[in-house]
Amino acid sequence: xxxxxxxxxxxxxxxxxxxxxxxxxxxxxxxxxxxxxxxxxxxxxxxxxxxxxxxxxxxxxxxxxxxxxxxxxxxxxxxxxxxxxxxxxxxxxxxxxxxxxxxxxxxxxxxxxxxxxxxxxxxxxxxxxxxxxxxxxxxxxxxxxxxxxxxxxxxxxxxxxxxxxxxxxxxxxxxxxxxxxxxxxxxxxxxxxxxxxxxxxxxxxxxxxxxxxxxxxxxxxxxxxxxxxxxxxxxxxxxxxxxxxxxxxxxxxxxxxxxxxxxxxxxxxxxxxxxxxxxxxxxxxxxxxxxxxxxxxxxxxxxxxxxxxxxxxxxxxxxxxxxxxxxxxxxxxxxxxx
Length: 338
Ligand code: ADP
Ligand code: MG
Hints:
Layout: H1 3-6, E1 15-28, E2 33-48, E3 53-57, H2 64-71, E4 79-84, E5 87-88, H3 94-101, E6 104-108, H4 111-114, H5 121-132, H6 137-150, H7 167-179, E7 185-189, H8 197-214, E8 217-222, H9 225-231, E9 234-239, E10 242-248, H10 249-254, H11 259-266, H12 307-311, E11 317-320, E12 323-325, E13 333-334
The structure holds adenosine-5'-diphosphate and magnesium ion (MG).
């Protein structure tokens, strides 16, 4: 059993997120009065170890990107704690955050909009090196060239602009830029979701090779369980701003405990077509995060919901070592913060 599977909380982990909550105010009218709140992320806790990939999955709008942005300090949090190497970073002033920023990098879904289209590829990758390190132009050039090679691009492509690359190459460029300041953790927000399936596998394999080589950690966000299966060590499943289940990958795929995870999993094709899973079709749409349902947020679509689920929000329970589930129908020790 890994250290991570034994843990019941993330104390001492590289990244530890506790009770993270992010509400976006909804403003209306000429005076921009706050008329409500989008409950994008509500009381979410998880951790990421050194060298580990935590997959974060759930349908569009469930709060995955907001969680990633909070970790990167690209958005302020409403409440909760984000600790990096044991130090709270959620409210650090910009100047003190700078030291950590180098170590926390991101790769986004659409490199075309996240990479400056008017910059040459070389400068896109050189920029973070110039920002964080005091190096000569020749040293920077050499480092950029070696990063190009490392991500499977050629040095002669350094003079090109983002539009001159294919989708997969552009994502390699995005990865080279993220690697440039020598990060320890990369938040990968749907990094392959816009790519063809054949290219997806290449980019995922590249990320896994880089992890082996550099000991990187990833928070790997995707709306599709099949995408996180290969790369993740553990997986957290989100529904409407909450984590409903979190455990190691093998257990999640072999023995899912939350009805929502079961439904998501039933849509993942099996390698053997004759062994098709029974597809669970969830009724209705995801409710609005402006007025999330009372009780268990999943009860309006849950095929096994009971009266209690409509009234009482389920606690996160430890159903097995390292396996946390928020469902009234599962037994286990309630845990404070997973
Ligand atoms: P995901 O990445 O899982 O698709 P997001 O974190 O992007 O989900 O969004 C979660 C919820 O927060 C959605 O309802 C989305 O519309 C809302 N949201 C995201 N960003 C903002 C924002 N800047 N202002 C208001 N609402 C937002
Ligand atoms: Mg998103």
